[in-house]
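Moderator note: this is an archived Q&A kept for reference. The question asked for a predicted structure of one protein chain; the sequence and the answer are reproduced below.
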Amino acid sequence: MKIDFCVPIYNEELILEESISSLYSFLLSKNLPYDWRIVIVDNGSKDQSREIANKLANEKISLFVVNRPGRGRAIRKYWSNSDADIVSYMDADLAVNLKHVPELVGPIIQGEAEIVIGSRLLPESVIERNIFRETISRSCNVLYRLFFGYGVNDTQCGFKAVKKSSFNDISQYFFDDKWFFDTELITYMKYKKNRLKEIPVEWNEKRFDKRNSKVKVFKDSFNHFMNFLKLKKKIREIGEAS
């Protein structure tokens, strides 16, 4: 069993070394019963991120470069090329507490699910977050359930793992190269009848004060709504073609 823990980056020089070192130390300390590697997926960084990643590289840490910006494109391209049995990713700021890593991959290893996603919006979740952004996030997820009818509480949390063979079955469908990748991933997996498990997480958006969020609330919310419309159309097209 081989698992890839991907960390997509774009201009993360201020936090990259601390984040990767923390993840590496955590995984080593757990003596996990499977083969694993950390893959830093650089989607067009223009700062010193790539140089830092190369400095960190060893037998368990590697760098995969996609020269064009776009987190979704970068994750999708690496996952498509990966030879792992399970592919996963987490945001570079490690906003989700690393203690949840075994819970993220465990259900897939045990054959209980094909996709596992972290959720900030389950009753058991513990979050530290700006109330305004929290309201926007909850509103987007209500809209998602109205659009698609899937009972998923949090589509956008940057903490997900997928069975690689199941990802291969849907990899041709994606249209968004940026943040909407998460929503597409969940929707295509659910549409194809894959089992999804949502796990509560401890999440802190201010874990790294050195680096501001790249999320632009109003612009991203509008784009999210427009992408809902595109995704609804895409699902219809997939159904008509099958």
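Archived answer notes: The chain has a mean pLDDT of 92.
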